[in-house]
Amino acid sequence: MKLSRNLTLAVATASCVLALAACKPTEKDAARVDAKSDSVGKQDTVEKIPGLATEKEQVSYMIGMDIGKSLKPMKDEIDMATVKRSIDDVFNDKKPLLDDEQAMKVMQAFGQRMQAKQQEQMAKKQAEMEAQGRKNIALEKSFLAGNAKKSGVVTTASGLQYQVITQGAGPKPKAPDSVSVSYVGTMLDGTEFDNSYARNEPAQFALNSVVPGWSEALQLMPVGSKYKLWVPAKLGYGETGTPGGPIPPNSPLIFEVELHKIIEPVER
């Protein structure tokens, strides 16, 4: 579980600090090292960082950053004043308010509660995605039916729709070929989710490595062509969309694709 892992990371960081402290030389050893350093001259210099003048301050801040990053995902579940109080109690050798057995019970109960909360959130997210998927199926059916009636729009046997913007005169790529293309991808509402023009360089890929709608369309296009494509969800990213990405489940997509060239295989 992610939150439990973060808590463990925070504890591990604290343990690491203690381990580093355990490697600290004795006072006599330190004195010898200091004397040697004074006689030879300092070999190491502390990097100048605004607000952190000494190495001790820099190390301390680094440790705080690491613990903070580990605890941030559960910031709504903890009280920082109490966290600081607990650290101070340990550093000052005060008797902890929790013994080891109590601390373990608290950690286990917290972990179980966070796991249940995550499962609830995941179930809610899944339900939302399924509802969005059903809505997109109905939207796609209605849109493609109307779009198929427009002048210049061709519908293939698979359900792919395309319109020729510019017809090139070059060869057509085949399934195993790699190509160089420029393109813009949008949702039906015009929301742009990808644009090779914005990256200032064409994309290159093999036809057998892209979604079925792209592979089919590019094999219809002579080099030098520019087509507009309407790709049904079943020929795109399907019922999953791009989890965590910009494309929802069962989303039909629109592309304007410009085929620059077929990339010749490198001879070995």
Compact summary:
It is built from six helices and seven strands, in the order αααααβββββαββ.
Structural notes for this entry:
By secondary structure, this protein is of the alpha+beta class. It folds into 2 domains: 2-97, no CATH class; 147-263, Chitinase A, domain 3 (Roll), CATH 3.10.50.40. The chain is built from 6 helices and 7 strands. Strands 1, 2, 3, 4, 5, 6 and 7 form a 7-stranded antiparallel beta sheet that branches. A hairpin with a 5-residue loop joins strand 3 and strand 4 (192-195). The protein is elongated and about 80 Å long. Mean pLDDT is 85; it is low at 1-6, 13-26 and 39-43.
Overall structural domain count: 2
Supply the CATH architecture of the largest domain. Answer: Roll
Give the structural class: alpha+beta
Order of secondary-structure elements: HHHHHEEEEEHEE
Radius of gyration of CA atoms, rounded to a whole number: 30 Å
Query: How helix-rich are the residues, as a percent range?
Result: 40-55%
Detail the poorly predicted runs.
1-6, 13-26, 39-43
**Most strands sheet:** 7 strands, antiparallel
From the spread of the alpha carbons, the general shape counts as elongated
Averaged pLDDT, please? 85
Number of strands: 7
Specify the number of helices: 6
Give the distance, in angstroms, between the N- and C-terminal Cα atoms.
48 Å
Portion in beta strands: 15-25%
CATH topology annotation of the largest domain:
Chitinase A, domain 3
CATH top level of the largest domain is: Alpha Beta
